[in-house]
Amino acid sequence: MSTKFKKFSLRVPFRFCPKCRKRLRRAERVFICKACGFHFYLNPAPTNAVIIRNAEHDILFVKRAFPPKKGWWDLPGGFVDFYENMETAVRREIREELGITITKFRYFFSDYNFYHYKGITYQTLDFVFVARVSRTQEKYLKPGDDAVDFAWFALDELPMSRISFPSLRAALRRYRQIYRSV
Ligand SMILES: [Zn+2]
């Protein structure tokens, strides 16, 4: 796990109770209103990312279309929606970002991460999966949704200094350790 982030340093600028408008008190992950008893908990947001490789064992990256980290390389994936399980969310994200449907993928790694967006910090819990695409599927890849482009990188030439999030860099380092020796 990354230790360079302080626990509970999440930037979440809620100051007043949405029910009674008195000042909120914050105790680490919970906002409390002493006046009316209102409680609001901060929870990590689950996300997914997929290490997709082709027949040559190159890895697929997408270029982020939007902040945070616009223009940086990312693994395809995203936030889990309400009423979705992780498998459904993986398939949906890959379909939206790459235009293909993946059926086989397996769990590989997880780490938490901090996602800063419009003055608020969200802590994500990133679940990283691995999958393969066939030569036929490769022809149908088409970047869409929040990906502007995609590219394949050889395992020894991953764009580590331009990869959007530390959790993904950690997953790729682990992946490289395992598959370099295969
Ligand atoms: Zn209140």
In the CATH scheme, the class of the largest domain would be Alpha Beta
CATH fold label of the largest domain = Nucleoside Triphosphate Pyrophosphohydrolase
Please write the string of helix (H) and strand (E) elements. Answer: EEEEEEEHEEHEH
Q: What kind of sheet is the major sheet?
A: 4 strands, mixed
The molecules bound to the chains, other than polymers, are: zinc ion
Beta content: 25-35%
CATH superfamily (homologous) name of the largest domain: Nucleoside Triphosphate Pyrophosphohydrolase
What would you call the shape? elongated
What's a quick, concise take on this entry?
The protein has 182 residues and is α+β, with helices and mostly antiparallel strands. The chain has two domains: 31 residues; 136 residues, Nucleoside Triphosphate Pyrophosphohydrolase (Alpha-Beta Complex), CATH 3.90.79.10.
Describe the overall structure.
This protein has 182 residues and is an alpha+beta fold. The protein folds into two domains: 12-42; 45-180, Alpha-Beta Complex (Nucleoside Triphosphate Pyrophosphohydrolase), CATH 3.90.79.10. The chain has three helices and ten strands, in the order E-E-E-E-E-E-E-H-E-E-H-E-H. Strands 7-4-9-8 form a four-stranded mixed beta sheet, sandwiched between helices. Strands 1-2-3 form a three-stranded antiparallel beta sheet, with no helix packed on it. Mean pLDDT is 91; it is low at 1-5. The protein binds zinc ion. Zinc ion binds at residues 17, 19-20, 22, 33, 35-36, 38. Pfam families: NUDIX. This is Nudix hydrolase domain-containing protein. One of its GO terms (molecular function) is hydrolase activity.
